[in-house]
Amino acid sequence: MIVTIILQAALWLWFLGCTTTYRIGKYTLVEGMGIKSAEFVTLCVYSIGLILFYLLPVGKWILLAILIFWFVVQFFCHWYYTIFGATERKSKGYNDCFRNTVHIFPISETRIIPDLYHIVQHTLILLNIIVCLTH
Q1: How far apart are the C-alpha atoms of 4 and 10, rounded to whole Å?
Q2: What is d(CA 90, CA 111) in angstroms, rounded to the nearest whole number?
Q3: CB atoms within 10 A of CB 47
Q4: What is the residue-level pLDDT of the chain in tens, covering all 135 positions?
Q5: Which strand (E) or helix (H) includes residue 29?
Q6: Are 18 and 43 in contact (CB under 8 A)?
Q7: Domain limits of the chain?
Q8: Residue 72 contacts by C-beta under 8 Å, 6 or more apart in sequence?
Q9: d(CA 36, CA 75)
Q10: What are the φ and ψ backbone dihedral angles of 76, each rounded to 5 degrees?
């Protein structure tokens, strides 16, 4: 149960960076989009899922549905274009949006290469799906 709580809290705190901005020294980990954003709505939906997880017998399944939906959305926003390639316009838009964030893999003109923040976020979502399934 402690692993579940730690992973859920880690994902919540990590994703909070999408509404606030996380910086490490002179490096930007993620540029926050504020409370008037889709990211903030996603954080609220995830928060509701967490509350239901602990309060209702079916809360596990509600949270699992939220996590799977979130993972699918992230896949089609990032990894689909990493695997299958992206148009020049899509690559340019993505690279411009995340140009100031920390990258562990070089940016590409033909594929979307997620930055460090998104790699960790997607990993945490996947780990939370696994934990939810095994809980």
Answers
A1: 10
A2: 9
A3: 13
A4: 899 999 999 999 999 988 888 888 888 888 888 888 889 999 999 999 999 999 999 999 999 999 999 999 999 999 999 999 999 999 999 998 888 899 999 999 899 999 999 999 999 999 999 999 998
A5: strand 27-30
A6: yes
A7: 2-134
A8: none
A9: 23
A10: -80, -15
Sequence-separated (6 or more) residues with CB below 8 Å from residue 117: 14, 17, 22, 29, 30, 101, 102
Bridge partners of 32, per DSSP, are none
**Strand, coil or helix: 27:** strand
b/e burial code for range 59-83 (CB count within 10 A of at least 16 → b): bbebbbebbeebbeebeeebbebee
Q: Tokens standing for 47?
A: 């928060």
Which tokens belong to 50? 């967490």
What does residue 31 show for φ and ψ, rounded to 5 degrees? -95, 115
Q: Could you tell me the pTM of the whole model?
A: 0.91
Length of the chain: 135
